[in-house]
Design goal:
The protein is built from 1 helix and no strands. By secondary structure, it is mostly helical. The longest helix has 22 residues. The chain starts with about 60 loop residues before the first helix and ends in a 10-residue tail after the last helix.
């Protein structure tokens, strides 16, 4: 029975060739510059706030308003469906 080829891992995949006829294949990726970590600012008070901050709350946009209008319309339609009386039957002999 023939052996099926094993899938290639990330290190075994062929490297992409640069565009342009006069450039040779790349062997190593360019080195990234060393970045220093950013220190977190020291807070004056370590005690947590009594209630969570509401400053990170997302504001409504037009899509939220459109969705709320559609939901409101469906709720009103459903309520009216059950509140309004049905018309009298027309097929009485």
């Amino acid at each position: 029975m023939d052996k099926q080829p094993t899938p290639l891992g990330p290190s075994e995949l062929p490297r992409p060739q640069p565009l342009g006829p006069d450039l040779g294949p790349t062997k190593d990726a360019p080195q990234q510059p060393h970045l220093e970590p950013i220190e977190q600012p020291v807070r004056a008070s370590v005690r947590p706030a009594a209630r969570p901050s509401r400053s990170n709350k997302r504001t409504w946009d037009r899509y939220d308003a459109i969705g709320a209008a559609i939901v409101l319309f469906l709720v009103v339609l459903w309520v009216l469906h059950f509140l309004l009386p049905a018309p009298p039957p027309t097929n009485i002999p």
